[in-house]
Amino acid sequence: MVKKNVRPWLLAIGIIPLALTLTGCFGIPGLPNVPGDSGGGSDELVEDIVEGSDDGIDFESGSLPPDFPDAVPLVPGEVGPSMSISNGQAWTATIYTADEATAKSAPDLLEQAGFTNESQIFWENEDYIVIIVATEEDDEGRWLVHYQIQVQQ
Q: Can you tell me the distance from the alpha carbon of 40 to that of 87, in angstroms, rounded to the nearest whole number?
């Protein structure tokens, strides 16, 4: 059951990725807004800026943060941008899948791993709260699943 003091964290882990996405700094392969960038340098630039903030954030592109919880099953596919926030108290991850059926299997995988969905907004177990923020097709025809995970308080 989600306690009152968890709600600000849920809001925070929802706003940070949204803000980064809307500003063109996260989740957009190649970041075409960066002059002269062919795709790889901008991800490194974002990683340097985010990780240099001393806010306990670890940004990864193409891999999960080392402290990502093994107890949270992810759909099979290519790992996109991901972050560990507050020194391993919350995480975000985007997984690119080949088809819609795989992307839409995310809730079933969580439930098979013992997560419950009594709220109809998020899944939880004794240790974690998981929100599946988006399941949509990108411009390249890949389907993406964006997860937000937080340690239970």
A: 25
- The pLDDT tens digits for 87-99 are 889 999 999 999 9
Task: Say how far apart CA 38 and CA 46 lie, in whole Å.
Answer: 14
Give me the domain span that covers residue 22. Answer: 4-151
Please count the structural domains in the chain.
1
Residue percentage of the chain with pLDDT more than 90: 48
Q: What is the pTM of this model?
A: 0.68
